[in-house]
Amino acid sequence: MARGEVVASGQDEPGQTTRLNQGPGVLEDPIYGQARVATASGRISEAMDVLSEDSRTPFSPSQLSRLDEALTLACRETGLLFTLYVGALGTRSRERAEELHASLGDRAAESVVVAVSPGERVVEVVTGAESSRRIDDRAAKLAVMSMVASFKESDLVGGMVEGLTMLADQAGHIHH
User: Looking at the domain 61-171, which fold is it?
Assistant: First the structure.
């Protein structure tokens, strides 16, 4: 990795900012290192990549927006907590989905977890004690069948949105 040229401004004490000139590659502070600088208040300001190159999401911003909207509407309209998990579930997919549901703690009773593992071609729906009174097994199975039909048409996001909508419709509106 190439290093940039550092030009000290003669302010080496804490609380002073060292001037950095940009050269090819990375800027470096002689005291604090790469992309770090002591600010006038004495704090260390550091620039860093938030996402590593390996942590790219498989969804576009518009797809994430659709999923977020479906989850938000389902929660708002029903008063239940809908959670969507997309990723590997392993060979014991049902147990893993139940673990995800249990991890919701105090909210587990009124929660619905939809766990989708595209690579393993598995969909699991787990309901809590309260949510299972409003979403029976038949309704959950119908939602899973609808999702799977969309997945077969290569519409992962559309299938998840439709499944969440079906589950929310079955649960009905929040009771005050």
Answer: Diaminopimelate Epimerase; Chain A, domain 1 (3.10.310)
Where in 40-175 does DSSP place strands (E)?
A: 44-46, 81-86, 111-117, 122-127
Domain ranges of the chain: 1-49, 61-171
Residue stretches of the chain with pLDDT short of 50: 1-27
In Å, how far from its chain's centre is CA 102?
18
What letter represents residue 102's amino acid? A
**Mind listing the pLDDT tens digit for each residue in 93-137?**
999 999 999 999 999 999 999 999 998 999 999 999 999 999 999
Using DSSP's 3-state secondary structure scheme, residue 30 falls into coil
pTM score of the predicted model? 0.68
Which backbone phi and psi does 34 adopt, to 5 degrees?
-55, 125
| Residue closest to 125 by CA, chosen among 155, 152, 154, 159 | 159
Could you say which DSSP state residue 18 is in? P
